[in-house]
Structure formats: C-alpha cells, structure tokens
Amino acid sequence: xxxxxxxxxxxxxxxxxxxxxxxxxxxxxxxxxxxxxxxxxxxxxxxxxxxxxxxxxxxxxxxxxxxxxxxxxxxxxxxxxxxxxxxxxxxxxxxxxxxxxxxxxxxxxxxxxxxxxxxxxxxxxxxxxxxxxxxxxxxxxxxxxxxxxxxxxxxxxxxxxxxxxxxxxxxxxxxxxx
Length: 178
Prior knowledge:
Layout: H1 3-8, E1 11-14, E2 22-25, H2 27-31, H3 33-49, E3 54-58, H4 61-73, E4 76-80, E5 91-97, E6 100-106, E7 116-124, H5 128-139, E8 143-152, H6 158-164, E9 168-174
Parallel strand pairs: 3-4, 3-7, 7-8, 8-9
Antiparallel strand pairs: 1-2, 5-6
Helix pairs in contact: 3-4
C-alpha cells in the first residue's frame, strides 16, 4: 500500500480531547490487516537502515508497533513504561508535559552497553515523551540515533526537538494542524 493509502486509513476525530484538536486515531489503521502489515514493514525498513540491534517503544501504542517491528527484524524489544509497572529495579526520567510532568522507566538490564536502539511509536507531536525515552535509553548505555513514527504532526515541532538531541526522525505520514 502507498503512504497515501495508509494515511487514508487513519481516522480523524474532531474536537477530541478538547475543542479545536483534530485527533489522529490509528485504531482504524491497526484494524486493517494489509495496512498494519505495510506500516510495520515501513517502520522495520527504517529501523533496519539505522542498524537497529533492538527496538524500544513507549507505552502504549509504541508497544503495538515496536513489538511488531522487532519481530519482523528478529531482534529484541525494550518496553519504555509508565512508573511502577516493572517488577524489577528500574531507572527513570521525569519530563515536562504541557500541563505538568510525567515519568518513564525502563529495566536497565535489558540494554547492552553500546547497543544501537531505535525508538518506534505511533505519533510524534511535541517530542517530550520521545526525547525523554531517548535520554533514558542513553543513560542505560544505548546508542539512540533514530526514531521512526507512523505519524508526524510537524507544526508541533517534535521531530525538530528530537533532531536537537541527535535523534534523526522518520515518519510514514504527516498531518497538518494538531
């Protein structure tokens, strides 16, 4: 399927979660077998080109795409979790949201020193979560130089923010606005 055909599978929900927001709902893409397969294949090609030795995905939709990419490439998957979800000692990072802070955690024993890890997620908006995940993985010893997303919302500047910390970003499609 072409990127345009895949983009057409993404449902836009107006005024969610608040007035003026055009929510890009990927559940319609995930439900479409051929579309999901094509999307995962594109993400896997991006990760393969980056020399990925492992894939990391942020909770929750990053788990869907990241695990599928890791399976396609025959490499491991590292879940980047919300706090308190892992049953072992973790390292974490707090980061700023538009209206407050949040935290991400990983099990550092899942990262080999110098391992090339590619971030995979469904959407890049402001880049706060992706930047925090990249920094956290780097603290654990990973080399994080590439992130691959299904959707970019370029007006929100997330890809540029990731670029500012040395993470090249690729997205299968983009949508104007937010």
